[in-house]
Design brief:
Protein name: Cytosine/adenosine deaminase
Pfam families: Amidohydro_1 (PF01979)
CATH class of the largest domain: Alpha Beta
CATH architecture of the largest domain: Alpha-Beta Barrel
Keywords: Signal
Distance between the termini: 42 Å
Radius of gyration: 22 Å
Structural class: alpha/beta
GO molecular function: hydrolase activity, acting on carbon-nitrogen (but not peptide) bonds
Mean pLDDT: 92
Shape: globular
Number of strands: 17
Number of domains: 2
């Protein structure tokens, strides 16, 4: 008789050995890597040396960007006509709790995010999280996001971890999978890293998994969800393993992260990602900038859940200090996985506020917020040499946005258009690592009907099990 741990190990080994093939029903012709010439678009490269090219071609070959410029010679390439389109690097979402994507509508008036999470997080089985992560990945691809940080903060068992990784295998997007704790575990109990080691050995022994698209990290609870001895033990275990670390740094008083103390302990640097941190003092921000510690900023979440002060003020002070700021969604029950909307919110709120330390600081501009959503997001995940800009040699994570749609017409400055007006419905084509996953406004690499049907089934089961306000109508 095979016990659960043996079965999970066998499943993990099988998944690690399986090539990225996409989802049943995918269009194999479109989702193969091949040689493409994206011709004649307005190219927002996010590359500081190239900037915006009013009209240019992008050559994609074997999953990489092989050329950027006018009238490229690309014999043998399949032409993708980008006339009247904006070409840009795929967005990078640096903080998303993907296990709960199917719970996006569990919240209600008088029943906010944390109440809904407490009522449901223990009810997700392994198949539920597979369906949830795959739903989230398809939604991201539809919206032009090609890289995501899956902040897996409800990894309830080895089978749950395997299920999330199976979804990443099928989801075809670039990702960091940050193995986290079991939601609602005791504050006094450290994380058990036994299965982190198992996952690392079975999936990531070569450094990355699934054709190089996915790398491993650890999401620790931080002092908002664990007692100090348990948090210190979690950090020591993660640091010993040399894995990238992600920490919730606090949106509400009291201030739970003192950056100078974290620096003394050797916890800060480019491989540590802090999110939220609305409570940060100017000194904390200076330490982050000096140590190269990036920030993930979830604008909707900072406003909805933050009670430590005005997020506008905090964001402008992070910029003044020189901290690398990336953008994220947090959870789909707080904000959609829509980087257009995140950019628009940051742009509209990124203004100095009289009577605060931000008074007199420069406002956030269109080009800057686009960089936060692309290149700075890649840098925050340690992928700045891989993705985040349309640069020769980087992987081909490329998005085409139609400008003739009614909400974008009559066109104009392309960076303004992307931030001020565009939304996922305007995304025509998405390349992920040189594969087309969306074409002509339609997801071609996913069986969308099946993904939605399965997500509905899991959501209904969880809502029914939770009872109370979540009980579905008869």
């Amino acid at each position: 008789m095979i016990n659960r741990r043996t079965l999970t190990k066998t499943l993990g080994m099988a998944l690690a050995a399986t090539a990225t093939t996409g989802v049943a029903g995918a269009d194999d012709e479109d989702s193969r890597r091949r040689r493409y010439l994206v011709r004649g678009g307005a190219v927002v490269t996010a590359d500081p040396a190239l900037g915006v090219l009013p009209r240019a071609d992008v050559l994609i070959d074997d999953g990489a960007i092989a050329g950027v410029g006018r009238d490229l010679d690309a014999s043998g390439a399949k032409v993708v006509d980008a006339t009247d389109m904006i070409v840009l690097p795929g967005f990078v979402n640096t903080h998303l709790h993907m296990w709960s994507a199917l719970g996006r509508n569990f919240v209600a008036d008088g029943f906010p995010y944390f109440a809904a999470k407490r009522a449901t997080s223990t009810l997700y089985d392994a198949e539920d999280v597979y369906r949830s992560v795959l739903l989230g990945l398809a939604e991201l691809a539809n919206a032009g996001v090609t890289t995501v940080h899956n902040w897996s903060n409800n990894t309830r068992s080895p089978a749950h971890a395997d299920a999330e990784l199976r979804a990443h295998r099928d989801g075809l997007l670039r990702a960091r999978f940050s193995y986290g704790h079991v939601d609602q575990m005791s504050r006094d109990v450290p994380m058990d890293f036994t299965d982190v080691d198992r996952v690392r050995q079975q999936y990531f022994s070569a450094g990355s998994a699934f054709d190089g698209l996915v790398h491993l990290g650890v999401a620790v609870r931080g002092l908002s969800q664990s007692a100090e001895p348990a948090f210190f033990a979690d950090m020591d275990a993660a640091v010993r393993r040399g894995l990238p670390i992600a920490i919730h740094a606090g949106q509400a008083p009291p201030r739970i992260v003192e950056a100078a103390d974290y620096e003394r302990r050797g916890w800060l640097g480019p491989r540590t990602l802090l999110t939220h941190y609305v409570t940060a003092l100017d000194g904390d921000m200076e330490v982050m900038a000096r140590t190269g510690t990036p920030l993930s900023w979830s604008p909707h979440s900072e406003f909805r859940l933050g009670s430590a002060g005005d997020p506008r003020d905090a964001l402008l002070r992070f910029r003044r200090a020189g901290v690398t700021v990336s953008l994220s969604s947090d959870a789909t029950s707080i904000a959609p996985s829509d980087m257009f909307e995140a950019m628009r919110l940051v742009w509209n709120t990124g203004i100095p506020w009289q009577g605060t330390p931000s008074a007199g600081l420069p406002e956030v501009g269109f080009r800057e917020v686009l960089r936060m959503a692309t290149l700075d997001g890649a840098r925050a995940l340690g992928l700045g040499d891989v993705t985040g800009s349309i640069t020769v040699g980087k992987r081909a994570d490329v998005v085409l946005v139609r400008t003739n749609d009614i909400n974008l017409a009559p066109g104009g400055l392309v960076e303004t258009t992307l931030v001020q007006a565009a939304n996922p419905a305007n995304v025509d084509t998405v390349f992920s690592d040189g594969r087309i996953v969306k074409r002509g406004g339609r997801l071609v690499a996913y069986d969308v009907d099946r993904i939605v049907r399965d997500a509905r089934a899991s959501s209904l089961r969880i809502r029914t099990s939770a009872g109370g306000i979540l009980t579905p109508p008869s």
